[in-house]
Structures are given as structure tokens and as C-alpha cells.
């Protein structure tokens, strides 16, 4: 049975696909930000397989960085909770923080295909992890998304005013009192765990393509 949260609470990954334009249903993020213990539906996602593959990638990256002389902190060691002046809480857990000689890199490991939201997730970590964080004091940070066969480096300059403004504006909307728009799309509903007690708009079938002949080409 769903309960209202005592304060709006946002997990970083609820935002990054919206920021990247890869998701459109802002209501699902708004609902999670304001409610807990809601009735959940199982989603079409193999969590055990993902956990194993992701863990292997994080561990292998940790060993590489240690071999290169970095101090490496992983997962729970990097968990953060930032409370804004509005009372909205934003939490996250970067996979890796590696520091050597005053240089640091925040990495997130991804086992799926590359997405823009992966880079935005690391940018949010670069913005929020250093706040009041002793390990990051006097460390020049950068970011990196690590895939199985490639990496994408993210310089601190990517953390520009436009990104900050877009991020803060989305936090205020997702953490605000007014419900946001529900956008039922099969491509999103199939990964959404919010059950029918709270959302009756779920799309359960992929859209049919309408076929027609044309002389255009
Ligand atoms: S089931 Fe679909 S429409 Fe309902 S909240 Fe989830 S993504 Fe949005």
C-alpha cells in the first residue's frame, strides 16, 4: 500500500532519461519522488543477469585502476544523499571513484548499449558527489562511462550552466507538488513497475505500424 514520503526523494537514475529526452513519462518520476511502498508490477528485466554482469564489469575496472596506482572506492562507498534548500532529497551511488595524485575520475559501468543518459548520469554524479565530500577535496575531477568494449570520457567543462539549469529545473518539477504529465508509451510502460492501483494508463502492447503504398519513392 503506497505511503506518502515525508519529503520528496529522487534517485538520480529517475532523472537522467528524462534529461536526455529518452523518456517522456514525467509522472512516473514524480510519483516515485512522492510515494514509497506502492504496489509494484514485475518488469520484463532480468535483474539477476544484470547484477552479475554489472558486478563483473565494476570489479574488473576496479582492478585495472588499482594496477594504475589509483585509490579506488566502489558503489556503497560512494553513496550520497544531498538535501536541497527546498527540502528535496537527491540520492545516488556512482560505481567507481578513483583518485591519484590530486586527479580523480568518477566512473559508471554500463553493460547495455551506449545512451546519452549514461553520460548525463555521470555528469550528475560529478555535480553532486563532491559536495561536502572529504575524498574529493582538492581533487580535479572528471567523469567516464565504461562499457564492455569502449569508454566515453566526460570533462569537467561539460558541467556547464545549461546543464546545471536544466538539472535544477527538472529537480524542482519532479520534487514539486504538482503532478507531472503521464505519457503512456509501450516503450516506457514495459519497464515501469508502477501497478494498476496507481496508473491505469499502462500500454501493454507494442504499437502497430500502419501500412500503405506510396509513389513518393
Ligand atoms: S505505466 Fe506507463 S503511463 Fe503509467 S506511469 Fe508507468 S510509464 Fe507512465
Question: How is the secondary structure organized here?
Answer:
Layout (H helix, E strand, L loop, with lengths): L2 E2 L4 E3 L1 H8 L5 H9 E2 L10 H21 L3 E4 L5 E4 L5 E4 L3 E5 L2 E7 L6 H13 L11 E7 L4 E4 L6 H14 L11 H4 L28
Parallel strand pairs: 2-6, 8-9
Antiparallel strand pairs: 1-3, 4-7, 5-6, 7-8, 9-10
Helix pairs in contact: 1-4
This protein binds iron/sulfur cluster.
Query: What is the spatial order of strands in the main beta sheet?
Result: 4-7-8-9-10
Q: Architecture, according to CATH?
A: 3-Layer(aba) Sandwich
Describe the largest sheet: 5 strands, mixed
Our measurement of the CA-to-CA distance between the termini, rounded to an integer number of angstroms, reads 55 Å
Regions with little confidence, pLDDT below 50 for 5+ residues? none
Radius of gyration: 19 Å
> What's the rounded overall pLDDT mean?
95
Q: What fraction, in percent, of the residue positions are helical?
A: 25-40%
Number of E-state strands: 10
Overall description:
This protein has helices at residues 13-20, 26-34, 47-67, 116-128, 161-174, 186-189, and strands spanning 3-4, 9-11, 35-36, 71-74, 80-83, 89-92, 96-100, 103-109, 140-146, 151-154. The mean pLDDT is 95. It is α+β, with helices and mostly antiparallel strands and 217 residues long. It is built from six helices and ten strands, in the order ββααβαβββββαββαα. A hairpin with a 2-residue loop joins strand 7 and strand 8. The chain is globular. Helix 1 (13-20) packs across helix 4. Helices cover 32% and strands 19% of the residues. Bound molecules: iron/sulfur cluster. Residues 25, 27-28, 182, 184, 188-189, 192, 194, 199, 201-202 line the site of iron/sulfur cluster.
Amino acid at each position: 500500500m503506497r505511503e506518502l514520503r515525508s519529503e520528496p526523494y529522487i534517485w538520480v537514475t529517475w532523472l537522467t532519461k528524462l534529461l536526455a529526452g529518452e523518456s517522456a513519462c514525467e509522472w512516473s518520476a514524480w510519483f516515485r519522488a512522492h510515494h514509497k511502498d506502492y504496489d509494484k508490477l514485475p518488469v520484463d528485466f532480468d535483474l539477476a543477469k544484470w547484477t552479475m554482469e554489472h558486478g563483473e564489469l565494476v570489479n574488473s575496472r576496479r582492478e585495472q585502476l588499482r594496477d594504475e596506482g589509483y585509490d579506488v572506492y566502489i558503489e556503497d562507498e560512494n553513496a550520497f544523499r544531498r538535501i536541497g534548500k527546498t527540502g528535496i532529497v537527491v540520492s545516488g551511488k556512482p560505481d567507481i571513484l578513483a583518485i591519484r595524485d590530486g586527479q580523480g575520475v568518477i566512473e559508471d559501468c554500463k553493460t547495455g548499449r551506449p545512451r546519452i543518459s549514461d553520460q548525463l548520469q555521470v555528469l550528475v554524479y560529478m555535480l553532486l558527489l563532491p559536495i561536502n565530500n572529504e575524498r574529493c577535496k582538492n581533487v580535479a575531477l572528471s567523469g567516464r562511462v565504461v562499457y564492455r568494449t569502449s569508454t566515453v570520457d566526460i570533462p569537467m567543462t561539460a558541467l556547464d550552466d545549461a546543464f546545471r539549469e536544466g538539472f535544477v529545473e527538472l529537480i524542482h518539477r519532479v520534487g514539486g507538488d504538482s503532478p507531472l504529465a503521464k505519457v503512456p508509451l509501450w516503450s516506457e510502460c514495459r519497464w515501469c513497475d508502477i501497478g494498476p492501483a496507481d496508473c491505469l494508463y499502462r500500454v501493454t502492447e507494442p504499437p502497430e505500424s500502419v501500412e500503405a503504398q506510396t509513389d513518393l519513392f
